[in-house]
Predict the structure.
Amino acid sequence: MVIDVPEDLCPIIDGAPFATAPSAEELHALLGPPSQITEPDVRAPVGHRNNRWHVYDTDGVFFYEHHYTRRINGCSIVLQSDEVLVPCVPQQPFSGLLRLGGLEVSAQTSLSEVLRGCGIAFKPSFMGWLVARRDNFSVILACKGAKLTAGHRSKTPRLVSVELSWPHDPWEVPVDGG
């Protein structure tokens, strides 16, 4: 899998630009069927999210399906699978090619290398994350210090995952006609 996020933040996945939220069927036609599709065991109350996750275990990525529109409105590229706190963590970290603003990024790429070399301007956000937003697209660099043997975390943050989202109208008519 090749994921390219240019400076305009419109992600291109395996050659297809994700300028807006595709249906799950469109995603599967592009990437093939996911390893698993999961959703929370306990449904959230009406008005809250009940999103599904389309997990590609061997690629190290999962996609979010919006609970109402049933469109794919974002994805998580997992670089450190032991650090991602969702119930659908892929079986292995991202194994494809990831480019952020022209810079190739892997689990071994330091956060400072990304910030210096990628050409995308990130701003600090909550939980130590870094965010870039443009025209309803966003890229979030989820960061944490490595776990130390003493049980604490390093003060030097490392890249855990890259979260992407693209334009999506949460009030759009659902894919299945509602």
